[in-house]
Amino acid sequence: MRVLFAAFLLSLALVRPATAADPEHETAILAGGCFWCVEADFDQVPGVLETVSGYTGGHLDRPTYEQVGRKATGHHEAVRITYDPQVLGYEEVLAIFWRSIDPTDAGGQFCDRGEPYETGVFVLNETQRAIAERSKAEAEAALGRPIVTPVESAGPFWPAEDYHQDYHDKSAIAYKFYRWRCGRDQRIRELWGDQAHRGIGKE
Asked: Model-level pTM?
């Protein structure tokens, strides 16, 4: 559905390789369906310093939005979140993440179907892996349903084209219509109830 809002811009941006985070900060890489929405949700969280939409988990270097959308690269849309660990812990990042997606859906997220929109937690080290597995089990218990989102080792993260970054601010009307039409917030509230992340929808 987002092709209606973004396809005409595909040729306008260049893909940049990922850069290392400041050593005083920490990083999480999460796939939660549409990266516009994940970015918008985490931009509201105190302690989050930067969000970057991109692609990870695939087999092609420097993939483009068009290539990923054709489901030919194995990549997921994902967001690299840089945060201040003095304000926000990895456990809290994950608790927000679970409650801002549908982790019971193995085929995509909401109206976006297929591999690019499947969820995932991409861990950068064994400490993150242990925290992520524990967090997943806790979220599953809280939800009372199996969570299918995998915890995987992070590979290369390729930032998406410039027009995708901060899309919720740059193209606010189109973004809000897409999010509403896709049913993202409705499903999250239906699934999580009072536990749903309160930042959803950038209301």
From this structure: 0.86
